Amino acid sequence: MYDNFLKAIIGLSIFLSGILGIRGEVYAQQEEIDSLNALLPEVRGRQRYEVLYSLARIHAEKNYDLALSYAQQAKEVALSTGDSLGLVKASRAIGNIYYKKSDLEAAIQHYKPVLGVARRNQYIDQLKFLLNGLALAYTYQANYDNALEYHFQSLVIREAEGNPREISITYNNIGLVYYKLRDFQQALDYFLRSLEIKREANDYYDIDYCLINIGLCYNALDQNSKAIQYLNEALTYCQDRCTPERLNQIYYTLGSANLGLGNLEEAYRHFLTSYDIAIEEENKRWEAENLYGLYMVSVRMRDDDRAIQFLQQAEAILESLDYTELRISVFGAFADLYASRRDFEKASAYQDKYINLKDSVYSEKLISNLAKIKTNFEERQNIAIIASKNEALIRQQRFNIAIVIIAVLAGLLVFVLYRSNLVKKRVNQALSDAKVTIEDQNRQLTSLNRNLERMVDARTIELQVANEALKRVNDELDNFIYKTSHDIRGPLASLKGMCNVAIMDVKDPLALDYFNKLDATAEKLNTILTRLLIINQINNSSASHELIDFEEIVDDVIVLERKRGLPPRLTIKKEIEENIIFYSDKELIRIILENLIDNAIKFYNDSDRADPFVMIKVERDGNTLKVRVIDNGIGISQVNPDKIFQMFSRASERSGTGGIGLYLTKTATEKIGGQIDLKTTPEGYTEFFVKFSLTTSRMRAEVAV
């Protein structure tokens, strides 16, 4: 009874939202939210799940963080009650929210785990949506083989159901994958097929999106006037109901079309309109897309300075996004622009980024996978064609039988049998021709697959040989470092002992000075050997996962440095953000902080005109944790900054560890999945910073538990 009451409340809220006008819709939605919030403290189990899921659905369009909180609570309720359907729906809702936030990897991580649950339990509707969500996320990640595979799986389900709207949506999405692969004619074929299905079924849902995609293809095929016709038609369908996302797409594509026609002022206006909408909606993807469009217009206008500004803004946005294809375009544009300005150093750097990123996307594995996926799908279509022709043959045979019966009754048996025989021969010939065609296609596809597999096998063998050789070299190096360090430490300890005895017995000041220097040198060598052993241990041990207290570790390191002795007038400051939840290896974090702080103190500014300081900062930046150590010391050359992280590379004669400290820091950082780099701040200070992923930290902690 309580379930019926709850459903009645939710149903009434939805009904009120539908019957009110545009102004009343907001009021009705707020009433629905208020009624659901009022129910939340009173319900448990399945009823609580329904309320939380409804709240997540309502907030999903405007307040992503609040919607995410409700969806995660709904997922926890589903897990605790063993509700597999609820688990699938809540996980899909979480994935959808991350997708809207442009966090594609997080979306995939929530879609994939419940895909198997939906398959096993035959939740067909949820399975279709999950496949579609995964395919779209992989499309914008430039993971095109996975995208195409999931779209074809979705298409098989939708064709079996025979729903024209859903079939047209899937064709449209498949066209988008081919568009990203720059196979524009294939993409256009799928988009036009989607549009044809919609018009035949009088279905105008998302028809504006289909028209926009057709316009994109015509732009790519240099038929810009045709593209503008389809885009104007999209605006006609959309009218006042256009969402910001649709307006972004339409104005961006109009900008591209006018750019192709040479209407630069018009193109600039359309790109800028789309960019303003993206800024207002905080849509980072379309901000970057339109900045790239404005760059193209600026290049055509020969305004290189403005073009560089647009590209730099786009690159900054894309650092936090996962849109690989757009990053490839931006890197290529930078390379071309700097080459035209004869800045060949920057052009080369961006050309390397462009090549590396493009090769990671358009690999031989991708080509092989795409060929296999397309082959499997075409084989399925061929089987369907044969089945259709067999069915036609059966119908024809039945028809022939009917003709024979009528002929017997009418006295025209011979004539009917003759005609029937002719028809039968034509059908058999058609089937025979179809079979020959299919067999020829299969032979061609088989040959192509065999060649691709041979290429992949050859490359795999080469990679395995290289990996085995590299492993042997690394093992030999680790063993050499370990044995050498242990073998040297014995004689080194004896040397330090003799130095200490000599210092106590010898009275000659000059001899004492020599022995003190010899002892200090031996101590430095002992420190180097100790750090080499630590590097060996890091390379050959597994990282632990525990909650890190940065305040405690930094305080311990500062106490240790004070015991060693600080330079005069040097101050150490710290700014550690509170409530940071970060799981990692405590000893490796301590090694990183100790070496960075010790390095900053060692290279302090000894000028009387400056007050030396070291600043330690630990803070969050979105899903990234940053550990920063800043000092106003003597500085480090920026000509080749990566060189200072190499073993035995010394930044200054002040280095007392033979150039191992920063190499040890980088090794420890990479062991726990971080990144280290340095820069010079606008004030001229030296800053070393280490970045860690908070998302990866939480996932590793969950796996460890």
Helix content: over 70%
Percent range for β-strand residues: 5-15%
Protein structure class:
mainly alpha
Instruction: Report the major sheet.
Output: 5 strands, mixed
Principal-axes geometry comes out as elongated
Report the CATH superfamily of the domain at 546-704. Answer: Histidine kinase-like ATPase, C-terminal domain
Structural features:
five-stranded mixed sheet, 26 helices, Heat Shock Protein 90, 705 residues, two-stranded antiparallel sheet, disordered N terminus
Summarize, please.
This protein has a domain at 546-704: Heat Shock Protein 90 (2-Layer Sandwich). Helix content is 75%, strand content 6%.
3D structure, described in words:
The protein has about 700 residues and is mostly helical. The chain has a domain at about 545-705: Heat Shock Protein 90 (2-Layer Sandwich), CATH 3.30.565. About 75% of the residues lie in helices and about 5% in strands. Strands 2-4-5-7-6 form a 5-stranded mixed sheet. It is elongated, with a radius of gyration of 34 Å. It starts with a helix and ends with a helix.
How does the SSE layout of this entry go?
Blueprint: H1 2-19, H2 22-39, H3 45-59, H4 64-81, H5 84-100, H6 104-111, H7 115-120, H8 124-140, H9 144-161, H10 164-180, H11 184-200, H12 207-220, H13 224-238, H14 244-261, H15 264-281, H16 284-300, H17 304-318, H18 324-340, H19 344-361, H20 364-410, H21 413-505, H22 509-539, E1 546-547, H23 550-564, E2 571-576, E3 583-584, H24 586-602, E4 613-621, E5 624-631, H25 661-671, E6 675-680, E7 686-693, H26 694-704
Helix pairs in contact: 1-2, 2-3, 3-4, 4-5, 5-6, 5-8, 6-8, 8-9, 8-10, 9-10, 9-20, 10-11, 11-12, 12-13, 12-14, 13-14, 14-15, 14-16, 15-16, 16-17, 16-18, 17-18, 18-19, 20-21, 21-22, 22-25, 23-24, 24-25
